[in-house]
Amino acid sequence: MSIAGNADLKQACDAAGKTRGHQLLESLFDKGTFHEIGRFSKSGETYTEACAGFGTVEGCPLYAFAQDSDVNGGAMSKAQAEKVRKIYALAVKTGAPIVGIFDSIGGKLVEKGDLLSAYGEILRDANNLSGVVPQISLVLGPCIGTSAMIAAGADFIVMSKKGQLTIAPNGEGGFSQEAAENGIVALVKDSEEEAIKAVRQLIIKLPSNNLEPAAFMEESEAVSVPSVENTAKEAAKAVASKDSIMELSPDFGKDVFTAFSGVGIGTTVGLVSYDGELTEDDCVKAARFIRFCDAFSIPVVSFVNAKGFLSLRAASMLSSAYAEATVSKVTIAVGDAYGPVYIAVAGKGANADSVVAWPQAVISALAPETAAVFLWNDKLKDSKNSISDRKKMIEEYRATEASPLQAAAQGLIENVIEPEETRSQIQKDLTMLSGKRVHTFPKKHNNIQL
Predict the structure, then answer these.
(1) How confident is the model over 139-193, as pLDDT tens digits?
(2) Are the CB atoms for 418 and 358 separated by under 8 Å?
(3) Which helix (H) or strand (E) holds 248?
(4) Over 90: is that where the pLDDT of 1 sits?
(5) Among 84, 122, 299, 403, which is disulfide-ready with 328 (CB 3.0 to 4.6 Å)?
(6) 51 has which bridge partners?
(7) Regarding beta strands 156-160 and 135-139, do their DSSP bridges make them parallel or antiparallel, or are they unpaired?
(8) Predicted model pTM
(9) Integer Cα distance of 209 and 135 in angstroms
(10) What sign for the dihedral angle of Cα 135, 136, 141, 143?
(11) pLDDT per residue over 64-85, tens digit each?
């Protein structure tokens, strides 16, 4: 190559390396591992409005693309779509996760029909990859209209506070707090640097694809020792290994806690807890998390202290998510676990592999307040103080007919354990279940309430 040719190449490389997209990907990947693809591809007279390539995150292989807001505002174009689709195609071949970084003013409208095809092809490819490799969207700027649909199709969305995610073509709404509260975004971070760090932390907790086992995790001792005073959420956090908890969607469905964590078995586990009466948001949050864990063979450990559901449709969705999941499932009843809640998340209908309870748990077909009055009402026939005697009767029913020992006698649970034995019980169950294999009916998928 001539001296002039070398100079032209150096100039082109320097220009490509200074774009915002290139710099974002450099900060996402381990230092020195980012390899760009399609570096010099053009969209009209300019370079393509996105940077793409592969590298590693803590040694884990990863493909990623980043929209270049300083190149035509990062506008989606046919050329950008081709670069993004190449990333999807390589991820299919190699079984590596994908991160998409979104920061764009929208679409390159002058391309008209080509733009429609470009959006449609990306949506199709992303959908086909769902459940095959983990997909993470990182929203650092405007992500509007159809681009928002592409970002929302990922397994998890991480957003910086200045990001914007909305399907409205005029860019109305979709700011980070709103996106967090409606459940579309898993994590919101104050800065771009923190958001990128959160994506890196999430990647290393996940397997590369649906054929690999749960990701290996170096672990320390538990956060604390569970106690009888714990809520389900507190119990779930207590059994987790220190510094391993990554909570998702904390501002959505607040009576349900979902997190990736370690519990001392050396791999990632999905923790879910239920407290109180479960709303539609609670059920949606839990069902989506369980379905992701099932798709990527991440064991699910559930902690239950919930009295009932407030939405039939959402309850059906959650029940279906548990019943369909073939991954290892361990449930601990730490408090109330009766009626539909027990059936949906802990009973035979949930296909739980192991169900244990703390001594103070309440397991019953009906709420004790209802069951005692319905079944034992004759005990109040000669009562001189019906209010006081009814309370005593309910407590007696709770302590006898709805006790975990009675549930164990009926085969509804496997064991009654002390709170401090919980982490050890989980470790034993999941270790034994590590070789679990389930054969299901041949079908495309089940049909759940959405």
Answers:
(1) 999 999 889 999 999 999 999 999 999 988 777 888 999 999 999 999 999 999 9
(2) yes
(3) strand 246-248
(4) no
(5) 299
(6) 66
(7) parallel
(8) 0.92
(9) 10
(10) positive
(11) 999 998 888 888 888 888 999 9
